[in-house]
From TrEMBL, chains A, B:
Keywords linked to the UniProt accession: DNA-binding
Single GO MF descriptor: DNA binding
Name of the protein in its database record: DNA-binding transcriptional MerR regulator
Classification of source organism: Bacteria, Pseudomonadati, Pseudomonadota, Alphaproteobacteria, Rhodobacterales
Organism field: Cereibacter johrii
Pfam families linked to this entry: MerR_1
InterPro entries found in the cross-reference section: DNA-bd_dom_put_sf, MerR-type_HTH_dom, MerR_fam
Residues of the HTH merR-type domain: 1-70
Length: 141, 141
DNA sequence: CTAATGTCTCTAGCAACTATAGGTTCAAGG
DNA sequence: CCTTGAACCTATAGTTGCTAGAGACATTAG
């Protein structure tokens, strides 16, 4: 049985994060000690590791909630789980695409600046020029 | 002179966003009509376009605040402005690097799944395996 | 003149935590 | 056995960058 601090350390998350996950129902309320402190067993540790890894991969908590409830029904087809993962993959790819456009524009504007005064700064100029860019850059959520 | 709605339309932002920018001091309080409605001139339109473009490039509002106050002093060296832009570029690159690692892992786990039952699902398995990955994937802010 | 928008202020909500305050419990050293 | 300090408890508020709603006033088209 682990205290919340030990569990946090083991899983690589902060203590308040665990309490937060409990509050929103991602982790079940654990046992308590005589003095009302949380005590976690193996199940909780695995569940938290699952959550953490999914978070590391960028899954939103709602998707993780769905994945967890799927993983509680091992006999069903994994199609729904795979669909969640594919959705996450395409979200990641969309973000990469957008960021690469930003990278290109930032590179260009930094590269073109002659590093003189603000009045001649290419960075300030490009930012202020509201018609300069043919590309659409929006909208990173 | 533009009303807030027209300005919003012209700049491609929502009306409450403009009020929000005013509230946090990114846009100065504009003139008001007899009936207390906001009226904006060219200066405000340009400033908002600047903000929007910088936001589109992913600059945080604090950085934009600094860029705006720099752009009000055209005689100074643009070094500070360029440094902000370089910081943003490296933040973007860091995000891209991390996302590409996520992309690779998501691809691998989706590709390896035989699409049977949850019990055999590679997606669920990889997420639950807290020691599977040699790579570090953390921490996208 | 009236009806339909548009605008005003203020408050609350989103994700996913993080930080603080003020109090309780636990483990170890003396 | 007792004290001290760390770790724990709850509850609330703050973070970022907006967005949505309520209820009241202003403007404009027909
Ligand atoms: Zn410059
Ligand atoms: Zn651009
Ligand atoms: Zn599968
Ligand atoms: Zn991994």
């Amino acid at each position: 049985m682990l205290t919340i601090g030990k569990l946090a350390e083991a899983a690589g998350v902060k203590v308040p994060t665990i309490r937060y996950y409990e509050q929103i129902g991602l982790l079940p309320p654990p046992e308590r000690s005589a003095g009302n402190q949380r005590l976690y067993g193996n199940r909780a540790e695995e569940r938290l590791a699952f959550i953490r890894h999914a978070r590391d991969l960028g899954f939103p908590l709602e998707a993780i909630r769905d994945l967890l409830s799927l993983s509680d029904r091992p006999d069903q087809s994994c199609e729904a789980a795979d669909a969640i993962a594919r959705a996450q993959l395409s979200a990641v790819r969309a973000r990469i695409g957008r960021l690469r456009a930003l990278e290109a524009e930032l590179e260009r504007m930094i590269g073109q600046c002659a590093h003189g005064t603000i009045a001649d700064c290419r960075v300030i100029e490009v930012l202020g020029d509201h018609a300069h860019c043919a590309h659409e850059h929006r909208k990173e959520p």
